[in-house]
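seq:
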Amino acid sequence: MGIKHLFFLFCFAWPAYGLAAEPLLNHFEKEFFTWQSFQASFQQKYHDQASGKTLTGSGQLWFRAPALMRWEYEGEEPYQVIIGKSKIWLIDPLLDSVTVEKASKAQNLPGLAFFFQKESLRQSYQPISPRQTLFNPTAQQSLLAFQPKTPNEGLIELQLLLNHQSPYLAGIAFIDPQGNWRSLRFTHWILNPVLPLQTFEYVNSITK
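struct:
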């Protein structure tokens, strides 16, 4: 699975490690649960354990409560994942391909329940010490690590990078049982922007 498909790996867990982890997580969740919408830039890495290769990518993310998301990967391999009210669109411009799924499929993914249902991480995950550190926290950040309470075929560890002085998520990473990992760093947060419903619908440029 390539780097541009990371969206589907957002169905996992979160960890506890670093300065005042419990109060920091409490503060983050308290703030996050009040957000109605947000947008942010992201930098992504995907490491394939078998080949030893690490791929990089970047793009933009939009979210509107309660369950709408849009991921746009930029650069040489553009790709979009749009979660609308009734459908999910996976759009690959290079292949001129659009795959459509039911939106309910996204809402059933455990990790996305955190975004869509505003579910506390403690309900599904337990804190652990990180197996490997995928972020280098600054003095103003803490790294938290979790594993699923119920065994997950696609995830053994999730790492969460939180800012001490800001409610915005600095980074998130996933490690699977095969040792592959994915990390996302977030910047340029905009909180509660006005995002019309059309942002989360696919429009074929040929039929506009």
